[in-house]
Design goal:
single chain; alpha+beta; mRNA Triphosphatase Cet1, Chain A
């Protein structure tokens, strides 16, 4: 996995009905290997997200700003490892991911963590915990190119499943390559790239008072794709 860690990358996301996943796996099976840790292929991820008092990170995404940030502490359950992670989107559409290991999964950011965030964002941000989610992930690594593909199932917020039929596929590449076998297969069945943020969808669904005009159409689209 080290050779395809892709901490700076282009992300392409798709929302897919779980009923289509088996056919996809069969179609691409000769081009990818599956990540396995201690015999586990389906991994569990817990994520605690943080935002400012006025929800800057959420609103930056809602308002379609090209440059935006997400901050979370993520626990990789099967590996028993936790990291403070910063995902930044630049003006060219690249995703830059930075992280440091932390002692445990927590809803609080340590002083070391705050210094790390300040160094990466070049901003003094007063952050607090806003959302926790859990999902299961299968990760594939291409054997023909520098590419990783993740399949996220069973997304839940506050122990409540968001949409049991939804799978979020994320194609992670050095630069966009539409000749990816995953990209080609999804295109062949009429499934096209679709921008989705697990953080923003969770915040919009749990906090009706937040500005969410941009996300209302996404809920409709998700329901249509997973019906």
């Amino acid at each position: 996995m080290d050779e395809v860690s892709l901490m700076k990358r282009v992300d392409t996301k798709f929302v897919v009905n779980v009923n289509n996943i088996q056919d996809l796996f069969l179609a691409i099976r000769n081009y990818y290997k599956i990540l396995e840790i201690d015999g586990n292929r389906l991994m569990t991820y817990d994520s605690a997200y943080f935002d400012t008092k006025n929800f800057k990170f959420y609103l930056d995404h809602h308002n379609k700003l090209a440059k935006r940030t997400k901050v979370r502490i993520r626990n990789y359950v099967e590996s028993d490892l936790s990291f403070l992670e910063i995902k930044q989107k630049d003006s060219k559409g690249n995703t830059i991911k930075s992280r440091i290991q932390v002692d445990s999964f927590s809803n609080h950011i340590s002083e070391e963590g705050r210094m790390f965030i300040e160094n990466k964002t070049k901003d003094e941000l007063a952050l607090s915990h806003t959302l926790t989610n859990r999902f299961n992930r299968i990760t594939l690594v291409s054997v023909v190119s520098k590419e990783r593909v993740t399949f996220d199932f069973n997304l839940s917020y506050n122990n409540t499943t968001f949409n049991e039929n939804m799978v979020i596929i994320e194609l992670k590449q050095e630069k966009l390559n539409r000749e990816s076998k995953v990209f080609e297969y999804l295109k062949s069945i009429g499934n096209h790239p679709y921008s989705i943020s697990k953080y923003c969808i969770g915040m919009a669904s749990l906090h009706q008072n937040l500005k969410q005009n941009y996300f209302k159409s996404k809920f409709i689209k998700i329901n249509k794709l997973t019906a």
